[in-house]
Amino acid sequence: MTAGETRPGSTGGQQHSGPDEEYSRERLATMSRDELDALGASYDGVEVLHVDPGPAPGSRLEKRAVRQVGLLFFLAGLLSFAFVVVYVGSGWFLPEWSWTEHESTWSALFTPMLGATLGLALVFVGLGLVLYTKKLLPHETAVQAKHEAGHFDQMTTGATLVTWGHRSGLARRKLLTRSLLFMGGGIGLALIMPLGGLIKNPNKGNPLGTTPWAKGVRLLRIDGTPIRPGDAEPGSLQTVFPGVEGGNTAADAATMLFRLRPEQVAQFQPRPANEGFGYADYVAFSKICTHAGCPVSLYEQETSRILCPCHQSQFDIVLDAKPVFGPAVRPLPQLPITVDSEGYFVARSDYIEAVGPTYWNRERI
Questions:
Q1: What is 290-325 written as a DSSP string?
Q2: Is 135 within 8 Å of 142 (Cβ atoms)?
Q3: d(C-alpha 363, C-alpha 365), whole Å
Q4: For residue 335, what is the DSSP state?
Q5: CATH, domain range 219-347
Q6: Chunked in runs of 10, what are the mean pLDDT values of the chain (365 residues)?
Q7: What pTM did the predictor assign?
Q8: What ranges does the record list as Basic and acidic residues composition bias (predicted)?
């Protein structure tokens, strides 16, 4: 309401500059909650069109609605705590996160159970709120004129909100209050529990920059047999894996062992950081494409190119596996190799850079 207008309840067209001037904070503080609510509605130009007070306090309709809403909130809380139990239970039944060819029943059901418990909990929360709004809250249709706000509006609006809370009946509906607290505790705990992964993180250390390869680890064929320098013909390629437990199933460990032809050895141009990584006429490169992580499995001896069949990236082995065609922009990481005392190929260390499609590039070319 703007200055110069006649206020509701004023006499003889008496003019006021606004409710803030007419009603001081001290005067408003002496009024009851209901008086402030009614006064605020009057000065805000609120016209009540329809009022439905909802079920009468203590009536059978109210008690039945309270039980229904309370049950929904209780089920939401129960499912939230079930989510916590499943999540914590992963530490008992899944002590380590590792890939296996045949998943256990628990590991196969773990993620679906998490989704089902938390998803159903949120569904019951929504149903409970809808039912509570429809059956227990008073319904009022009103029209209000907009105007500038001052301390008058702050106090009367606050009183209206408090009055609404009183009318909601939560204070006297103990079953609803308890079910809400139970549900809130379950939902809150379910939302906080995943943060525990920051404390007990299975991917500690540098998972993107390390593989099962290490100093002295033998290069093995898929059948587990070791390799000597004389076992392959010039121009050949064979896929090798680290000779450690689970080495042939590690997603980032597959490596290509090449024996270069004499002309390739003469033309070979290693990157500065890869000097001495090969052994005689042998070199080893990661089998994981640096574009999208596909297995690089084709080798064209005539052109000295390693090909990825998924997106047609090509790497020149003479140029130390630099990409020369396709979407890949990083060279294939090279594994430093040598032979052990028995004459079998072993790794001199792990890869000095992350394999596959990583989020960083080494400025070393």
A1: TTT-PBP-EEETTTTEEE-TTT--EEETTTTSEEEE
A2: no
A3: 6
A4: P
A5: 2.102.10.10
A6: 43 56 85 82 71 77 90 92 82 46 60 89 92 84 66 74 70 79 84 69 65 91 89 89 81 90 90 89 92 87 88 91 90 92 92 78 46
A7: 0.49
A8: 18-27
